[in-house]
Each structure stands twice: as structure tokens, then as C-alpha cells.
Amino acid sequence: MVLVAGVDSSTQSCKVVVRDADTGALVRQGRAAHPEGTSCPPDAWWAALQTAIADAGGLADVAAMSVGGQQHGMVCLEDSGAVVRDALLWNDTRSAPDAADLVTELGGGQAWADAVGSVPVASFTVTKLRWLARAEAANAARTAAVCLPHDWLTWQLAGAPGLDALATDRSDASGTGYWSPRTGAYRRDLLTLALGKDVLLPRVLGPADSAGSTAQLGAAIPAGLLLGPGAGDNAAAALGAGAGPGDVIVSIGTSGTVFSVAAAPAADPTGAVAGFADASGHFLPLVCTLNAARVLDSAAAMLRVDHAELSRLALTAPAGSDGLVLVPYLEGERTPNKPDATGSLHGLTLGSSTAAHLARAAVEGLLCALADGLDALRAQGAQVERVILVGGGARSEALRQIAPTVFGCPVLVPPPGEYVADGAARQAAWITTGAQPEWELDGLTRYDAAPVPAVRARYADARDLTLTRIS
Q1: Which of 44, 196, 220, 325 could bridge to 346 as Cys pair (CB 3.0-4.6 Å)?
Q2: What is the C-alpha separation between 226 and 424, in angstroms, rounded?
Q3: Cβ contacts of 341-346, under 8 Å, gap ≥ 24
Q4: Which residues, listed in sequence order, are joined to residue 412 by a DSSP beta bridge?
């Protein structure tokens, strides 16, 4: 039996799965936590990866591995390979004014959509580089290379052999704001527009290309394991869930994402849909929200209940929560592009002032924000026949049952799993065997319910009535 390993280095933690390359059967797994916050020293990711590998029993019997990771994070390196400063993560919004400036300087959203398939917002690496040049000129001057979280971890696994060995993949490169999925090439003019100079960038690998092999890094990481090209977390999740035409993945984790596999690149000048590439050689039109599972965390904290009780309460309230609407912009928002917005509660009455109504409003508000993403994908030509619901938030029974009433289509929920890490493991199997593995995704549970259009109509009325945060 040939074994492969997949890594999910996400915002909050690092997960490692070891699977049979032929069947996909899970053999063992491990995990470790990441620090909280919107910036992070990359060494913390490396420490967590080593801990998670050890927790998974090491890699001594593994033939290949690949790393899926959070997109957009800015990792700046000196000539020596040393990290210049803590990485800014995708959910760091300090570069919002820089994003607006860059959009204007290139000539608007259409110009950016034509150039790289996406209109940059604060999440994108290109905007963080403009912030660096503006706010930390000395650090910008020290920067000799820029890479992404999964690029840096793959490079570390190879023993950090030199900056020219840095590699990335199409999916993660497409989230930088200076690589075009349509042409498959970097737009160095956009990199220079942001940072004020050109720097070394990772070479971009195809889905079945190897990034090299591991160095001997202690007892748990032997030398000679093939390294896959890696992937952005959403592209890895699509690969892990086996998404096909007509399927839309809705992932409810730290962020909320709505994406589908497409044959042609997207180019949405409004910026709602990011025209990313996927991990299989196709494309991944994607809508991302900053607020997802932590909306449920916050509602549970407000009501002083656990998630099981929050779900039970939500299912006891009527659809539409008797007019109570929660707009879930608790951390600002990426889609729509409102980085300084706050969450808000609308329609509160004596009758709706109950724990059950608030619980239901939290679930419905979260789902309505994601349903806006479904509409944006449809506007770009996506066929939405069914939704595959993944991520930590998908464990909520209330969210599962209410989702089809908001989305207006059947919802399928696979068993709880680490789909980003599974997608990375599929990559590792691909480079080992030379063929994309066809692992079966068993145990799908289907949820059907009649749509309740009034829920989304009330949400649309309240959505733009948000206030900005007090600085």
C-alpha cells in the first residue's frame, strides 16, 4: 500500500491526513493550533506543521505529500531567505485604502478583471504589498522575494534550498492579484505598481508537477518524499470533495466561500466574483466572505449556549424569524467590499426578542450572505444544480436544514472531514501515480426544503443599512 499525506495549513490550525494513494482510505491524521490574529510569524506555521505531522505518526512510510494553505497571505523574504516581517493574512483589512487606490490607478474594475480575472480587495496579496511600500518602506526595501503561506511551507519542507527554489501553483497564484489565470503568466507590471519594484516570485507549477522532495528534517520528516505543487485552500477543498459540473461548494469556516469548477476563466468587473484557477487545470470562480462560522460562535456566546443548543433554538423559531434579520458583517466584509462595516440587527420586536429568534436570525443571516455569492456565480454563468456544504459550520444541524430554504436548491453534506487536506492528499497521489485519483466520496446526506423567498427579501432590505466601526 502506497501512502500519501495532505496538509491543510489554515488560518486557525494545521491538519495532516495520511491516506492510501489508491483508495483514499484514511490511515491516520494529526493537527496543531495556529496563533490567533490577522498577522502571523511564518515560523508558527512551521512549528504547527511539525507538531501535526508528529501527531499523525510521522511520514516515515509516506511516498509523497502536498500542502494546501490559506490564500493571499503576504510572506516577504530577504535575499538570505529570512522573513522580513510577520505575514499579513487574508483577513487583515489594513490595506483596504490601498486596494481602492490600486483599482483607480489601473483604470477601474474592468481593467483589473481583464488583467488578472479579479478586482483586488484588502484580502489580496497585491494590496498588502502596496500597504507595505506605503507604511513600512524599510521593510519593502529589504524584500527580495514574495511568496504565499503554502509556498513557504513547501520550501521549508525542501530544506529552504534558496529563493530560486520557491514554487507555487495556479490556484494560489491566482489569488495574488499579479498572476493571470487566462494567460498563465505573472503581471510583473502590477507587482511593481504595488510594491514599487520587481522582486523574485515563485515559479508556477501545473497540477501534476512536483515541487521537489523533502529534506531530512528530524525523525518525523524523512528525506526524499515527493512534494506536490500545493494549492490554495478553496481549490484543495474542491479537489477533496470531488466537485463536478453543476456542483457549487459552499465552505463555512473562518471565512465563507462559494465556488464552482469551470471550464473558462471568470472576469467580474464588480469584484464580487474572483476569477481564480483551480487545482485540476481548470478554473474556480469564487466568492468569499469574511464572516462565516464565527457568526455562529458569536451568537452562541451572546446567548450563553453551546452550538448544539444554538442549533436546537434556531429550529424552534419560524422561517424568517418573524422579521428579525441579522446582517453578519462582524469583522467588516470582503464581499460586498465593506471592510469597515459592522454587523447589525433589524426588525426587533417584542415578539422576536427571544433566544430562538436570534439563533435563527444568525443562521439565516449567515446563509443569506452566502446566497448572495450564489447569485454572483450565476451571473457569471455558473450552473447551480446542487450545493455541497463543507467546513466546520456545516456541522450545525440548523444550518443544514435551513440552507435549502435560503439557497433554493438541494444541499448535500458529506461526512465531517478535512477536505482541504484531502485535496492536498489527492495531489500527492497524483504526482505519485501519474493519474488524478478517483476516490469515492461516500456518506453524502441530502437536504431538501421549499425555498422561502421572504427571508432573502428581508435580508436584502437590511443589508445596506450597516454602520461603520468606530476607529
Answers
A1: 325
A2: 13
A3: 341/466, 341/467, 341/468, 341/469, 342/466, 342/467, 342/468, 342/469, 343/291, 343/295, 343/466, 344/462, 344/465, 344/466, 344/467, 346/461, 346/462, 346/465
A4: 388, 446
Choose among 362, 245, 346, 200: nearest CA to 296. 362
pLDDT attached to residue 471: 63
Out of 26-30, 234-238, 325-329, least confident range? 234-238
The answer to whether residue 246 scores a pLDDT higher than 90 is: no
pLDDT of residue 220: 86
- Position 163 scores a pLDDT of 97
Q: What is the three-state SS of the chain? A: CCEEEEEEECCCEEEEEEEECCCCCEEEEEEEECCCCCEECHHHHHHHHHHHHHHCCCCCCEEEEEEEECCCCEEEECCCCCECCCEECCCCCCCHHHHHHHHHHHCCHHHHHHHHCCCCCCCCHHHHHHHHHHHCHHHHHHCCEEECHHHHHHHHHCCCCCHHHCEEEHHHHCCCCCEECCCCEECHHHHHHHHCCCCECCEEECCCCCCEECCCCCCCCCCCCEECCCEEHHHHHHHHHCCCCCEEEEEECCCEEEEECECCCCCCCCCCCEEEECCCCCEEEEEEECCCHHHHHHHHHHHCCCHHHHHHHHHHCCCCHHHCEEECCECEECCCCECCECCEEECCCCCCCCHHHHHHHHHHHHHHHHHHHHHHHHHCCCCCCEEEEECHHHHCHHHHHHHHHHHCCCEEECCCCCHHHHHHHHHHHHHHHCCCCCCCCCCCEEECCCCCHHHHHHHHHHHCCCCECCC
* Averaged pLDDT, 299-323: 97
pLDDT > 70? residue 238? yes
Query: Which residue numbers are catalytic?
Result: 233
Percent of the chain with pLDDT over 90: 83
Greatest pairwise CA separation for the chain in angstroms:
66
Sign of the alpha-carbon torsion through 382, 384, 385, 386: positive
Range 30-54 average pLDDT? 96
Cell 488578472, located at residue: 116
Distance between CA atoms of residues 103 and 98, nearest Å = 9
